[in-house]
């Protein structure tokens, strides 16, 4: 990673829910064009950290800067611009169940209020093609689709505005191995094609090994390790040894060495 | 920033005439959704105008100077070119890839439309849907009767906790709102009629009017309509959300039938709670009416209360309570029927809840009409 512009800068972030402290003084920088994976045990606050980057949760202390703008205290117009420059894939897809697949992907484009219907139609079909969704599914409702399909369409919606920044919350959770491998390939090729910066929360070791450039390990309320996987596994920390040292971890790492 | 954007518009392209006499359209700057932002339509229009003005075969497009191009920008140019590559086009390799993708992209097929015989087919659909609901409701009530037979032979399986929870939610928690509404309606009724009666010197007949109308008609109807809106919607929404979150399926695989554990307690609970609420609403409404009468025409409450049993036969009270019970069970049945049919999406949830409330209020009024016809000679003293 050459020293290039930071896309996300988190400094001195502390999160408290009541008297329960989730994060304590976290610093994290994400650089342009990288895929950063957030890992950590259940309840370590991975999703909370992601939600703070998205502006859904305000931290007790500390600042989050996204694409050079402050996440929490910038003007309405700046917030809007910020939101059009980032896309989010939620864990359950969060497709609007009352809208068809086509309308779901078209919604962020319509919200721009500058595009004409023809352009929107063209862009939506392009994005659906990108994530490998066939035309005949465009008129379906989300309830009629399988889990893997919902994820793909949610990804198409996240990519609708050509964002520079993509947040993925458990992108492969609930997908079978073949589907999650396909999803990983998809994210990888899209990253190259669209020059995306990706922040992802995941539990899936195979995904982690396959696409992440750097891994941030959340444990004990802070980031205990940050770096590429080969560096991470040398660190002696109970969570890291348990996470990567198990049977599944060893298998995934063996695959990494074979590449 | 408008002046900046306007300058941006102007500097986004250059028209150059080459030595060979061709027109070269050089695009510069950033062609992305965020950088174009509000100027997207104007830039599109300007470029389209330029493209239409010059001869397509002699116009050369040069995109190599574009600093940033995203798919929105690419689609904009693509549409200006009429969804095909222009004859002369200069691209950078990564732009080439984008346009390759655009060429491969398929367009959305038009939705087949059937406008022929629309009113007739709509009517038919509505009728079929109504019949479907009717059979569904009959099936559900049949299931409930079967469950009741089962519970008679297995008294240990009676869902007593659920029944009591429903009694509390639909009964105890509805006391406040029914009291307020009942009291106010009583006052209104009393004010309107007592003045008229006073004109004829028939003051004491206010007791007949209030007693008869409230105990026989208004009390049960007010309570039933309020409860249909309040508890009916809550029941439908609860079952609907349980469908969305797959809790209904979880119950089924545990071998707990929906009808026995979810529907039956609601029907029994509301069947017990609504008559009690009817009693409560009637009492409060009567109180409101008598208070207003005392203030308006000086009729003593004490006199009115002693005169009440003589003027209003007790059958009217039983009729009101009976109506309450039938309405309560019907409301719960309708609410559960619509709740169980909700599909796992947000729109269906809203639609189901609305339909449930509208249907149960209609059913309540229908039941009232049936009671009025069926019991027209009971509890009414005809002056001889």
Describe this structure in words.
The complex is a heterodimer of chains A (259) and B (384). By secondary structure, chain A is α/β, with parallel strands linked by helices. Chain A contains 10 helices and 10 strands. Chain A has helices spanning 46-54, 76-84, 101-112, 117-130, 147-158, 177-194, 205-211, 229-232, 238-245, 247-258, and strands at residues 6-17, 20-31, 35-40, 61-66, 69-70, 86-89, 165-169, 197-201, 214-219, 222-227. In chain A, α6 packs parallel to α7 (205-211). The radius of gyration of chain A is 19 Å and the shape is globular. With 384 residues, chain B is of the alpha/beta class. In chain B, 71% of the residues lie in helices and 6% in strands. The chains are: A alpha/beta (259), B alpha/beta (384). Chain A binds chain B through residues 81, 84-85, 96-98, 102, 112, 114-116, 118-119, 121-127, 129-130, 135, 138-139, 141-143, 161-162, 193-194, and chain B through 32-34, 36-38, 40-41, 44, 70-72, 75-76, 78-79, 97, 101-102, 104-109, 111, 343-347.
Task: List its salient traits.
heterodimer, A: 259 residues, alpha/beta, six-stranded mixed β-sheet, 10 strands, B: 384 residues, 14 helices, disordered N terminus
The main sheet of chain B orders its strands as 1-2-4-6
Uncertain stretches of chain A: none
Distance between the termini of chain B: 89 Å
Biggest beta sheet attributes of chain A: 6 strands, mixed
Total DSSP E strands of chain B: 6
Helix content percent band of chain B: over 70%
What pattern of helices and strands is seen along the backbone of chain B? HEEEHHEEHEHHHHHHHHHH
Query: What is the residue-mean pLDDT of chain B, rounded to a whole number?
Result: 87
Structural class of chain B: alpha/beta
Strand percentage of chain A lies at 15-25%
Shape of chain B: elongated
């Amino acid at each position: 990673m050459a020293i290039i512009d930071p896309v996300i800068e988190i400094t001195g972030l502390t999160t408290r829910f009541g008297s329960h402290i989730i994060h304590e003084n976290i610093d994290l920088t994400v650089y342009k064009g990288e895929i950063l994976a957030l890992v950590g045990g259940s309840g370590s606050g991975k999703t909370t950290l992601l939600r703070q980057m998205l502006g859904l949760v305000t931290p007790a202390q500390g600042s989050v800067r996204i694409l050079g703008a402050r996440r929490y205290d910038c003007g309405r117009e700046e917030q809007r611009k910020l939101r059009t420059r980032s896309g989010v894939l939620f864990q359950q897809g969060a497709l609007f169940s009352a809208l068809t697949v086509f309308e779901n992907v078209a919604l962020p484009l319509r919200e721009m209020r500058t595009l004409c219907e023809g352009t929107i139609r063209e862009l939506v079909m392009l994005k659906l093609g990108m994530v490998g969704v066939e035309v005949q599914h465009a008129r379906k409702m989300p309830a009629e689709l399988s889990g893997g399909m919902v994820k793909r369409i949610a990804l198409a919606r996240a990519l609708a505005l050509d964002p520079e920044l993509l947040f993925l919350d458990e992108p492969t959770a609930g997908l079978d191995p073949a589907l999650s491998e396909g999803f990983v390939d998809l994210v990888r090729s899209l990253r190259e094609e669209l020059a995306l910066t990706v922040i992802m929360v995941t539990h899936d070791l195979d995904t982690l090994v396959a696409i992440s450039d750097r891994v941030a390990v959340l444990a004990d309320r802070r980031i205990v390790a940050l770096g590429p996987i080969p560096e991470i596994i040398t660190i002696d920390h109970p969570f890291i040894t348990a996470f990567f040292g198990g049977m599944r971890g060893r298998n995934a790492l063996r695959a990494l060495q074979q590449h | 920033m408008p002046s900046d954007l306007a300058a941006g518009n102007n500097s986004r392209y250059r028209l150059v005439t080459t030595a060979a006499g061709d027109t070269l359209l050089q695009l510069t700057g950033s062609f992305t959704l965020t950088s174009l932002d509000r100027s997207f339509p104007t830039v599109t229009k300007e470029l389209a105008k330029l493209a239409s003005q010059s001869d397509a075969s002699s116009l050369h497009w040069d995109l190599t100077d574009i600093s940033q191009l995203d798919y929105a920008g690419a689609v904009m140019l693509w549409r200006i070119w009429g969804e095909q590559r222009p004859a002369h086009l200069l691209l950078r390799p990564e732009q080439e890839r984008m346009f390759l993708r655009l060429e491969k992209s398929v367009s959305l097929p038009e939705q087949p439309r059937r406008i022929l015989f629309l009113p007739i087919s709509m009517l038919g659909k509505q009728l079929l849907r109504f019949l479907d609901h009717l059979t569904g409701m009959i099936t559900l009530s049949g299931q409930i009767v079967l469950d009741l037979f089962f519970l008679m032979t297995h008294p240990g399986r009676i869902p007593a906790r659920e029944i009591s929870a429903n009694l509390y939610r639909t009964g105890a928690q509805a006391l406040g709102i029914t009291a307020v509404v009942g009291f106010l309606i009583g006052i209104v009724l009393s004010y309107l009629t007592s003045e008229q009666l006073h004109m004829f010197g028939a003051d004491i007949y206010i007791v007949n009017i209030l007693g008869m109308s409230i105990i026989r008609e208004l009390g049960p109807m007010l309570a039933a309509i309020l409860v249909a809106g309040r508890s009916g919607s809550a029941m439908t929404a609860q079952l609907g959300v349980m469908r969305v979150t797959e809790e209904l399926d979880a119950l089924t695989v545990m071998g707990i039938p929906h009808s026995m554990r979810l529907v039956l307690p609601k029907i029994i609970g509301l069947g017990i709670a609504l008559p009690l609420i009817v009693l409560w609403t009637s009492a409060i409404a009567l109180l409101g009416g008598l208070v207003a009468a005392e203030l308006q025409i000086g009729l003593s409450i004490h006199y009115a209360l002693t005169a009440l049993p003589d003027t209003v036969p007790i059958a009217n009270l039983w009729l009101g309570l009976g109506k309450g019970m039938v309405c309560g069970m019907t409301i719960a049945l309708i609410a559960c029927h619509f709740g169980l049919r909700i599909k796992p999406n947000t729109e269906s949830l809203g639609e189901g809840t609305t339909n449930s409330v509208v249907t149960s209020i209609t059913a309540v009024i229908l039941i009232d009409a049936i009671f009025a016809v069926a019991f027209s000679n009971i509890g009414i003293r005809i002056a001889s």
